[in-house]
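Subject: Sanity check before I submit

Could someone independently write out the structure tokens for this chain? I want to compare against mine line by line before I put it in a report. The sequence has 873 residues.
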Amino acid sequence: MTSDEIRETFLSFFAERGHKRLPSASLVPAAFDPSVLLTTAGMHPLKPYFLGIEQPPADKLTSCQKCFRTPDIENVGVTARHLTFFEMLGNFSMGDYFKQGAVEFAWELSLEGFGFKAQDIWITVFEGDPELGIGPDEEAIAAWESVGVPRSRIVALPRSENFWQAGPNGPCGPCSELYLDRGLDFGSEDDLPGGENERFLEFWNLVFMQYDQDPPGTLTPLPAQNIDTGMGLNRMAAILQGVETVFDTDQFAPLMALGKELAQRPDDRGLRILADHTRGMTFLVADGVVPSNEDRGYVLRRLMRRAIQHGHRMGIEPGFLPRYVDVVVETMGAGYPELERERDTILKWVRAEEEGFGRTLETGLGMLDRILEAGEVSGDDAFRLHDTYGFPIDLTEEIAAERGASVDRAGFDANMEAQRVRSSAGAGASKKVGADQELVRQLATEPSRFTGYEHLEERTTVAGVAEQGGRTFVKLATSPFYAQGGGQVSDTGTVACADGDCRATVVEVLRSGEDQAVVVELEEGSLREGEEVVARVDRVARHATQCNHTATHLLHAALRQRLGTHVRQAGSYVGPDKLRFDFTHGQRLSPEELRDVEDQVNAWILRNDPVVPQTTSLDEARAKGAMALFGEKYGDVVRMVEVGDAQSTSSTGTGGIYSRELCGGTHVRSTAEIGVFRVVSEGSSASNVRRIEAVTGPEAVGLLRAHDAIAREAADALRTTPEQLVARIGALRDEAKKAAKAGAGGGNGAVDVDALAGRAEELGGFKVLTASVPVGDAKALLDAADRLKNKLGDAAIVLGAAGEGRVHLVASVAPALVERGVKAGDVVKVAAQVTGGGGGGKPTMAQAGGRDPEKLDDALAAARDAIASALGA
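---
Independent answer below. Compare away.
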């Protein structure tokens, strides 16, 4: 069987037996679960169903889920089994069948679907545990015996092997695993399943979720008994295709062959790493992850750089990652159409990362060579390689191990402590989200019905009230209040008793799946369960929020139109005051690009195009090309928001539907309601992620008026008109340059160091200053930088001066910032390239020159962006 046939055999088997077939969820977990970076198991996307947070689409489900496990990165290539990216087949029951049904299904599919011989299958069951107060899983043993498995082939194993629990608390239960006996050629007569041997190969795990563990060690039977099973598709492929390892199966063989073709010095470990990692990076990018130094982006970057390093080590010519991507898409595109759909985006990011890392790889390897000549790699050295040259610690350890040297991992971990503290913040957020969701469910059995799409005032009933942590939580039978989600903030408003004897202000709306509750501040009287109330949304705030939300859709469409389809939403804030939109893109937008995007959004607003939300199937929405929100979870039925007039498509392409997104937020009825769109700022949010902040409607009008007032005041001060202001400033600048040149040696006297120091900003906890200075030569610029360095302390300073067709640049970076990855030579080089020049120097001090003085401001902006990116600010 091919891997595609194995997948289809499994899913069809359970679909024919009443299971609803689910498509694979994204590798990026849904927004409700911020405690994990990536989807790690087949049941992961189904957690809300097992925990009772959401109603499952059916009591019986089956899926083939894309999974990614970061702890296995170091083991890839070392063993023949470990993978980072893999597919997990599973069947699930929520209160329908239990052990007997799961056993019968597994036995039938193993024999009739996959053709195994009954005598070759062995079974493991839970042997019991005195601490948990339960004995052997006799129910599972009886079930296996009922389908014909003799007791001699059923092996009892301890809690460490055959009892599943996600953590110290929560749903849990015994497991039963199916093993294939590969015969005495792979072991001895004494071998048993679960032991350290190659004779018995596990191919399916059945989890019987029947207990709730709370407190740890205390089990209470669950009201509904659930089934969760997992079968690794790649391992099953190795078994059914009769090959020794997963790397010999049909999904991996073409990738292994490509590596052998390209490598001058191929080795099995390197070839396996390339095959696994290129699969993983292809699927991660297809699901919206981009390379960065944080979270999922760091996992992706680590994967890419590990692949690049091993390709380099085996003598593969640069530019090989795109060839691997093409093979992954070709071999797996039939099962995962998103690979073909996102091919151009995937290729863009892998090319950019290979080119970028390739430029520093030689330098980093040279540095590591020099370190290894002295013996051990210290923790500081390992951290500097990681932070400066982008070497993941595992690469340093691998290369050091090949040379017989050790790495001070403890010292490296100590240097990484700050990053670890930051990355652990998600767990606290997860606990708070979980507590809020549980409270919402406990307020009343029936979920609150949201009616806020249709109207903003609702006569309803209080279904439940609770006080917790000094806050009052109220669940309404029907609610017009939008609960925060998809980047849009919660509605505000009031809840008042119908008879007039109570009133409360709504300050927050909590979401739990399709349910919600409002958090209120009582102003008068009290709210009681069963009370008839009138719920009113703040109309002004809602309309302003709707304007900003629809504007984010227009902005997204305009960015993709102007920059390319690699642009994808990576986060947003939509409130009544402004909108913030994060998107994947590798460089700062030029003034022309930003102007074009803003102009396009305003052109669409002026057209007064309809904004049409509609309910449709997920498949239909995808077929129409609807954009999905990064990290969101979607069911079979979705809400899709279209913007544009389908009847007005013209030959120039200016009409038609130009925005189509899956979105549960609230929107205006037509684009003209937005009024006007104005970008406030564009900058770096994270590595390869840009951020635009903008305002609409009255806020935008107010901003434009403020800018007009500033222009008029400046014009008055300079005794000119607003229209002549730029020319007047240019003339003053020329006068200043002439005065500076006329001064001694180019004139330090023209530099007000105190004023310059006052312009420094905070980025990532450090002072950063980028500024143009009216001096005549590089020596005066260096002197100004030295004086500023004494005033600012731990800071990054980039100064520029222009005159007579030349640009002078100098960068000064304190050692504390060098340790964070800000290098003066790198920064000044980036700035110089903008002005058509070059340069470099030491990490703490560097100089450069350029040929285009008109680009000085752009060069300084590029330097600031480079510093911000390195600091993660």
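---
OP: Matches mine. For the report I'm noting this point. The chain has a mean pLDDT of 88.
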